[in-house]
Amino acid sequence: MKAATLKTIKDELSTLSAETLQQMLLRLARFKAENKELLTYLLFESNNEAAFVEEAIREMDEQFLEIRHASGYIIRKQLRKIIKHMLKHIRYSGEPETEARLRLHFCMKMHERGLHQNRSTTIRNMYVSQRTYTENTIQKMHEDLQYEFVKELAKLEQ
Asked: What's the Cα-to-Cα distance from 154 to each of 24, 106, 118, 126, rounded to whole Å?
């Protein structure tokens, strides 16, 4: 995700009410280095969550393509980088559905690449922990949404 220029952000902020600005700034205060990206999300992308998720998935796919089947150390390092970016998007959104989609996509990509069966305990644990987080997130969602996600999660067991 590219951050907008300060001028563009300033112009967009001038159109918002004081109460909305206050809510955004209080949320922004929790973050440090990624303030500009968070503001970009709040101002320009939060109204189209589906496009935001698709962009995050596209970035994740590109990062998975960079993973080479080299040493376990390099694979772990690249997976940690992907998780870090994924968590950033999850934090920005704050939506359980977005979190479930991104975590599920991460697990599916690991499954496709066969990384979930890696001989490295750390890599297997990354997969298991993300899968557990996904299951916990799905439990917090509405029943109709749960059904779709559980069905996708079941595909990973096959």
From this structure: 37, 15, 20, 18
Q: What percent of the chain has pLDDT over 70?
A: 96
The reported pLDDT for the residue numbered 6 is 83
Distance CA 61, CA 52 (A): 14
The pair of three-digit structure tokens given for residue 35, joined into one six-digit string? 């303030």
CA atoms within 13 A on the CB side of 124: 5
Which tokens sit at 22?
A: 């206050």
Nearest to 40 by CA among 72, 71, 11: 11
Q: Convert the pLDDT of each residue in 34-89 to its tens digit.
A: 777 877 888 888 899 999 999 999 999 999 998 877 788 889 999 999 999 999 99
How far apart, in Å, are the Cα atoms of 61 and each of 13, 109, 110? 33, 8, 11
> Contact, 126 vs 83, CB < 8 A?
yes
Q: Is the pTM of this model over 0.90?
A: no
